Amino acid sequence: MQETQKKINTNGTENTKTFRKDDQICDMFNNISARYDFLNKILSFGIDCRWRKKLVRELKPYKPKQVLDVATGTGNLALRIAKIKPQTIIAVDVSEQMLRLGKEKIKKRKLDKLIKFKLASCDELPFDNESFDTVAIAFGVRNFEDPLKAMKEVYRVTENDGVVMILEFGIPKNPVVRIPFLIYFTKILPIIGGLLSGKKYAYSYLTTSVKKFPFGKDFVEILDKAGFVDTAFKKCTFGVTYLYIARKNSNYC
Ligand SMILES: C[S@@+](CC[C@H](N)C(=O)[O-])C[C@H]1O[C@@H](n2cnc3c(N)ncnc32)[C@H](O)[C@@H]1O
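The joint structure predicted for all components is written out below.
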């Protein structure tokens, strides 16, 4: 895994010790875990649930059986996928605190036999080749150190003819939507997120990571390079979020 030289501390100072980006991301999600679900709802005006619902609506016709939810966080997508009754859902994440909250949620809903959580990074998934007919990721990929490497790993664990569905933020192209979106996303959201979580850096990171992320055709290119076929995307909410759909074809090498 690539190493970075500087760590930006929560007080804005730089730490010159070497560290892994994964570790910094993991610390950040551990630190905001307690307020993650609450802030998601507030900052997205509740639309985040609709985006996950859309993914599940698109997934349902594939009749998923063995599902992997990567970067599950507190298990929001896994819980949504549980509604279409696959046989198993394995949900992985690098943040222990996010997973701890996820486990509490599924226990309350008595879904702990269906959904199993595991601490793991998308860089190195602890599963055999072709273990899942479905892999889903919601708002995880922009956090990965090396998205292409991670998508190759997703490809490896996907069965031939399996399907991969990925939700991630984009930036609307239409100026009528783009300008108000950027004002909200870069100026207002980091302030509200910072105030309500007490972790301003985490919500500034959200803005920066979305701006840097190669969305739309650029991310489709990454999926293609990883080996997927029939790659496509659908815009949600004018392109604030993109849903990527890809297949692993048995005849493709
Ligand atoms: C924005 S949250 C999304 C959580 C959840 N999927 C949802 O829709 O609410 C991003 C999650 O990605 C996780 N993450 C970041 N890097 C990861 C990696 N390399 N492998 C697995 N999970 C990772 C973080 O710990 C965090 O829980």
